[in-house]
Amino acid sequence: MTPAATTIDPFALQQAGIRASQLVASFGFPRADWDDLRQDLLLDYLKRSHHYQSGRGEERGFIFGVVRNRAARLAIQNGRRPTFISGVDDRVLMRSSCAEPPAPALARSIELQMDVRKVVASLPEHLREVAVLLSRMSVAEVRRETGKSRPRIYQMIGEIRQAFQEAGLAPSGGAR
């Protein structure tokens, strides 16, 4: 084992393994890619670990966020969508010809996806564009893509959040 391998936080190893498993199970990545996905998640964490500031929160929260965000970017970059059931998407599950009704958690997930699509579709065009971009990019990338200032992007995020709150799809009270 190399000296660098002994310095990786065990929590980071655990989180990378969990997220790699989620990418394989829910986003259609091949099972054979699990080790590569885990390694990618760990490398991203190691690259970003120097950004951790103890005054801003616990290190575990930082690790969790970095690994989760990298996993989300991997799924988005590869154009993957949650499959829930291997090889079956929500259009297939919604057909009335299904032999068995979807499991309750799966049905709730599909309903939530449909509700989210409905809210996004109801947004004014300028907010819809930002919402779609935010589903694939960071705020900084959206800012560069749209040419809008950071405060304006966050103002638009607030308006998008308000639409979700009004639809009952987001926590109220300013939770982020």
What does this structure look like?
There is one protein chain. This protein is mainly α and 176 residues long. The chain has 2 domains: 7-77, no CATH class; 93-166, Orthogonal Bundle (Arc Repressor Mutant, subunit A), CATH 1.10.10. It contains 9 helices and no strands. It has helices at 3-6, 10-27, 34-48, 59-77, 90-93, 104-122, 125-134, 139-146, 150-166. Helix 7 packs across helix 9. The radius of gyration is 19 Å and the shape is globular. The termini are far apart.
**CATH fold name of the largest domain:** Arc Repressor Mutant, subunit A
The helix fraction, in percent, is: 55-70%
Mean pLDDT: 78
Structural class: mainly alpha
Short structural summary:
With 176 residues, the protein is mostly helical. It is built from nine helices and no strands. It has helices at 3-6, 10-27, 34-48, 59-77, 90-93, 104-122, 125-134, 139-146, 150-166.
